[in-house]
Amino acid sequence: MKNIKDIALLAFAVIGFYTIITAFTTTESNQPQQVYATPESHVFEASGITPNGAVYIYNKRTGEAYYMLKGDKRYGK
How far from 61 is each of 25, 29, 30, 40, 42, CA to CA, in Å? Predict the structure, then answer.
């Protein structure tokens, strides 16, 4: 009977030791999450169409701005 108690105690000790060791390791990364393979930097917002037919498009994350007028695209920051 003592042999069974020793085996059970050893099993619980191994499980406890394994739990303590794995609690200190982390697998989380600080990389930004991507949804549908689109990077977070691709967050664009467009203004309404101006009277001359132009549109302003800007990236909310990087600050890039585009001025588009019937196929003419200009870049600015």
Answer: 32, 21, 18, 8, 8
Helices (H) and strands (E) in the chain, counts: 1, 4
d(CA 46, CA 56): 6
Residue 3: strand, helix, or coil: helix
pLDDT at 75 over 70: no
Confidence of residue 15 (pLDDT cuts 50, 70, 90): very high
What's residue 36's pLDDT? 66
Three-class secondary structure of residue 9 per DSSP? helix
Q: Is 70 left (phi over 0), alpha (psi -120 to 50) or beta?
A: left
